[in-house]
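User: quick one, fold this
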Amino acid sequence: MNEELSIGIWPVRVEGEALAQRLQEQLGGTIYRPWLQAGLPQKSQFAAAYAASRHRQWIVLAATGIALRFLNGMIRDKHSDPAVVLLDEGGRFAVSLLGGHEGGANRLTYRVANAVGAVPVVTTATEALKPFVIGIGCRKGVPVERIEAAVLTALQGRSLNQVREIATIDLKADEPGLLAFSAAHNIPLRIIARDTVAARAWIGKPSEWVQQNIGLDGVCEPCALIACGRGKLVVPKTTLEGVAVAIVQDLPDEPADDRSGADAGGTQA
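Assistant:
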């Protein structure tokens, strides 16, 4: 494999090796084990691998401060810098650290997050100004055209360009239609663990179909609300030919007690 097309996975401690192996199983790539060269400073080891352009994508398993010290003096410009995604050793947060757009770090961040169940953190201005998250649940094998029709119906004239991410449950992580829709519109797909959805309290009307087939009260509404923690449900579940869609909008100035009000009357799916 051409190393420039693969991912370099750099755990800074032996304690991160198991998580690195999990990433490799899901995403491929090469794991570096700098502790095997104890006599050579780890920053120097990373600098040598980075400068050699062995990979155009890096995942660093470390604290933010360590990653910043590794990169000090090596950052050039957004058109040539590789993608660097930071993942804490607990696998909780995947952060797009360098090369967000041009380098592909934003896309890689979602791949990393989905692989280990982390929260994706993307801070580029373009994404910060997109206020909508779409939750989608669908039956198996639904074609991309039907998913697109359901989403456009639910948007009610809102622009897809204002959608920050799509959220769905882990059971649908490999659903071809969802993956195709995400890729076609360059909107990242965020996967929410089934246990996370199950743990969320609900006061709306559950979906009987989802209860019978998945064992949960709903999919599209909870996934969207979980993915957009400061958001409010502005379009409750809308269904069209086997696809359920809900839309949540960022409302950062809303009092916390009011954020969940809109979903009280919606059905869960």
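User: anything notable?
Assistant: The chain has ten helices and eleven strands.
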